[in-house]
Amino acid sequence: MAGLKSMMVVLVVFTVASFQLHSTVAQTRHVVGDALGWTIPPNGEATYTTWASRQTFNVGDTLLFNFTTGLHNVAEISQAAYGPCSSTNTLSLNPTGPATVTLTRSGAHYFICTVVSHCQIGQKLTINVSPASTSTTSPLSPPSTIATPPSTFEQSPSGSPVPPPSSASSTLNTVAPFTFLATALAFYL
């Protein structure tokens, strides 16, 4: 009976650890521009280009655009519209800040502010999104030739504090003690 009880404890601990790992490994929240936020950048387009070059974007990650409603917005546009800052055919537009964008497809994504001439003076961002990381048990799916929808926007509550970016390494640091505990319990019970 004691052996069955210890096996149940080990099973419960492993289950909790695996749920925690599964729910957060491939999802990172990127605060666009970090402390600067989504605004007219002081160094023009280079500000957001430099910021993006320091990030790794994957499908499932989110972008948080911190801006004041009425002063800025964020639109996802096509590559052809990015250079000339054209907002005539936006893929999606969110005029309410702060705004959260979930990256739902891999490849290049282009974002601009469509207010007055903000894009022309540097309030624009291009990122490259990698496919979602997969575990060793789920194979990569073959590339698709079917068009995928643009990223989805989610409304963040106004005035709410912005949590720091999450990372997979912090999740692994949380799961490791559970794994150690389960192993120790299996030997001592």
From TrEMBL:
Q: State any GO CC term.
A: plasma membrane
Respond yes or no to whether keyword Glycoprotein is given for this record. Answer: yes
**Where does the UniProt annotation place the signal sequence?**
1-26
Q: Mind telling me which InterPro entries this protein's record contains?
A: Cupredoxin, Phytocyanin-like, Phytocyanin_dom
Looking at the record, the residues that make up the Phytocyanin domain are 28-131
Q: Where is this region: Disordered?
A: 131-171
Swiss-Prot/TrEMBL keywords: Disulfide bond, Glycoprotein, Signal
One MF term in the entry's GO annotations: electron transfer activity
Q: Does the keyword Flavoprotein apply?
A: no
Q: Where is the composition biased (Low complexity)?
A: 131-159
- Recorded protein name is Cupredoxin
